[in-house]
Amino acid sequence: MKRFLIFICYIFLTIIVYPENKDFSRWSFSPEVGINRFDGDAVQQLTDPFVRTDINLTYGLSLEYAINPIWGLSLDYLNIPFNGIYTSPLDTFKTKLSNVNLSVTINFTRLIFPNTNSKFYISGSFGLGLAYYNFDVKTVPNTTALSPPYGNAGSIPVAMTFEYNVSKSFSLGFRARYITFTKDNLEGVKAYQGVTNDRIAMGSLFLTYKLNAKNKDHLRNLKMNDFSPDEGLQLAKLNNEKIRKLDADLHKLDKKVDNQSKRIDSIAKILSNDGPDSDGDGVPDVRDMEPNTPPNTAVDFWGRAYKQNPISNGNYTTTNNNNNTNNTICDDVPSVYFDFDRIDLDDNALIAISKIAKKMKDEPSLFVEVRGYCDYIGRNPYNETLSKRRAERVKTELVKIWKIPANHIIANGKGKILEPRIRYKPNRRCDFFFGTP
Predict the structure, then answer these.
(1) 236 — alpha (psi -120 to 50), left (phi > 0) or beta?
(2) Which of 45, 155, 213, 367 could make an SS bond with 169 (beta carbons 3.0 to 4.6 A apart)?
(3) pLDDT tens per residue across span 252-278
(4) Cis before 437 (ω within 30)
(5) Phi, psi at residue 269, to the nearest 5°?
(6) What residues have CB less than 8 Å from 3, skipping those under 6 apart?
(7) Which of these, 126, 100, 123, 128, lies nearest to 112 by C-alpha position?
(8) Is 153 exposed, middle or buried (0-12, 13-18, 19+ CB in 10 A)?
(9) Do 192 and 215 meet the contact criterion of CB atoms below 8 Å apart?
């Protein structure tokens, strides 16, 4: 008996520590009182429909945990005294029995009508338990009492409940039980032992109190729709939350894109050759740091003047007067030179371009302006087009052969150089101006 009670307590402690849903209350307890009748080895005349035993008062207490509005678990304690006779008033027995059961409960009304508003419910339960009993037997010579005068038995209870909800917290009801025991000697007499297992039928009135039902919805009062809302609505709610989150993320992304767009626009203005050029040096005013350079002055990417130095061997370099290393023509990178009225690249030109490519690969953040020039000979429109074609030819070589990003190269045609007014190879060239935004 003690082991069984420890086992029952262990199961209920496991249930208790199960986290309660924050939206519902689940516990209820029910004291009950009623009558019972023993169905076992006792006198039953041919004309009697039932075994002749007395009707006795019984009482008990049930503690229930609702899993959902339909299913639950119940722990029941019952005190069940009973008595009867065998063959004569002198051949009698009196038994006092205590029974503990763990049962599964089911609300049939809620099972069949999940969303009914009725306050009347029909429920059922079935389970397993353990009983302890002791007896007092008065016998005639034909019967023999058992020894010792007590024992244990297993039990299988089945119950049907009729219940009416008076309020959120209370309900009244009637419960009919029929308990089958695993023994045939609850009356304590050997004479009839082994015929069939003993049983007890009982009926009781009970009052149920639902814990915390005023503060939370108790599961015994809920419709199934209230317990498990429509999955479509749940999904819609979940989707709405996701949409709100995505909208917030998109709003943040829009701000980042706006900031990047402003930055890209400012870089695009700097890199572009469009826009007014007040001093005619080929650098638009938006990035021209020296907007008043004299005509035909070689300038860097930012419009700053360079001092030009023809070299006796035919190579041509320029140096930056401001010694700004971020925007300069490098001394180790010669210009690219062309034959008269041509855009073809010779071996020397290809070597120069390879140096440009190496420098840009070594420093990926660099931008380069390829600035093309022509001799004084010829008309201005023709020379402007020719100088542009020379710059584009060099850019094409850097992009296709050396895989330099095209958006890091600006091809700019400057037309003809005014001095000297003859065919002069140093004037038929492309210079390279490096810079970082």
Answers:
(1) alpha
(2) 213
(3) 887 777 777 666 666 666 666 667 877
(4) no
(5) -65, -40
(6) none
(7) 123
(8) buried
(9) no
Residues 6 or more apart whose Cβ sits within 8 Å of residue 88:
140
pLDDT digits (tens, 9 = 90+) for 51-97: 567 789 999 999 999 988 999 999 999 999 988 876 666 778 889 99
pLDDT category at 322 given cuts 50, 70, 90 is: very low
Structure tokens at 1: 């008996």
Tokens 């029909």 label which residue? 122
Angle made by CA atoms 353, 355, 358, in degrees to the nearest 5: 110
pLDDT digits (tens, 9 = 90+) for 176-196: 999 999 988 888 876 555 557
Amino acid at 331: D
Sign of CA dihedral 306, 307, 311, 314: positive
- Angstrom distance (rounded) from CA 74 to CA 28: 9
Helix (H, G, I), strand (E, B) or coil at 355: helix
**In this structure, how many other beta carbons lie within 10 angstroms of the beta carbon of residue 300?**
26
Distance CA 324, CA 304 (A): 10
Q: Name the DSSP letter for residue 88.
A: S
CB-CB neighbours of 211 under 10 Å: 14
pTM of the model: 0.49
Cis peptide before 19 (omega within 30 of 0): no
Beta bridge partners of 123: 107, 161
Asked if residues 125 and 157 have their Cβ atoms less than 8 Å apart, the reply is: yes
